[in-house]
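quick one before i forget lol
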Amino acid sequence: MNTLTTKSLLVVDDEPGMRMALKTNFEREGWLVTVASGSTEALRKLECQRFPLVITDVRMPDGDGIQLMRSLRASSPATAVIVLTAFGNVPEAVEAMRGGACDYLTKPISFEELQSAVERVMRQAGSLPKIAAPSGAIVGTAVSLLRALERARHAARTDADVLIEAESGTGKELFARYIHENSDRRNRPFVAVNCAAVPEHLLESELFGHVRGAFTGATASKAGKFELAEGGTLLLDEIGEMPLHLQPKLLRALQEREIERLGDTRGTPVNIRIIATTNASLPAMVEQGKFRADLYYRLNVIPLPIPPLRERREDIPVLADFFARKFASEAGRPMPILHPGFISGLEAHTWPGNVRELGNFMRRVLTLSDGNEIGPECLKELSGTICPRTPSMSPASLGAGTSMREFERHLLEATLQCTGGNRTRTAEMLGVSLRTIRNKIREHGLPPRRYA
């Protein structure tokens, strides 16, 4: 499966059967499909999401597809458009092509014919995905995710260094690979080094290499990751774990694009692009004296935040379906049906481990289940707390005349229970600072040790 930006499309047709047939067939081919029943609904969806491809009917009750195409051409000229109609004629075809359609097909049409047209127009537009690897999928339709992908796409057009700050499990390395594969360096190496996984006394040699005799056991010269990434991209994963004493040497390598092997006195020029990732707040580490300010500013040329899963809950059903298909295929079994109750349970979970946690959970469920349906009973395998997005506080449950202070206490206590007493996650869910949560716990007399 490919990244969302190259494998998503919008189908616009007023016939429900046609919409569903196209949706089903394209999803089977790995596309993420959004449908609209007419021009009005399509325009609303196009306002908050961009699609590389739109397939639209011509004659619809609330406007025709050619008008829709002209509006789309004005707002998103890079989008490819294929026009379908049951009333094909030469003047209409000419009008569609003049309006900017990439292809024009007459109903009835076989899916194979339509698929061939899609491949043709996407290839002409230069939008065919260059990588087709399940491990490289960035899946979702949330606006926050699309913004991050758009920013990554802009970053890929340059050689500027990128700093990806995001929580663990959000897909930082996937975004780094996406930038590399969409850059001019795509045919050169992508080299990753985890700064947290390499022992501190070996990290300098791992990054910059060493010459023979540089230290005990160095019986031969060795190139480091900087040299191995020549012409391509070097990913510095978990850069916040970089020891302070190595940071000046890294800063010089970034500024000069020249490195010195351990034990060598000669510089070696390198032509690479740096992408750094961290799940820590580097500005906070700078304030604490744990990270150099000059190195932070040098890395933070293009900051790229990635939203955690709790901020794009609408993607949970799509991700669950993606993982279910992936793991079912790996196991050689049919794709199971995901019961609506099961999906609702997934949407209610806080997912502190983000997409990684969801993927691991779906693998566990697929492994332990034998039936053709994944039902709500499988949620018992989900560790952690299941809680609603917003704690339930209907006027009826609180009673008429409940004071604002009591309402506030109820909200705070319910959210703390929802997060298992985690103050940081409670602050995030309620949109306030951690300090405010601490003050409110004291103000309302809630037991402080219970909420850490």
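fyi The first strand starts at residue 8 and ends at 12.
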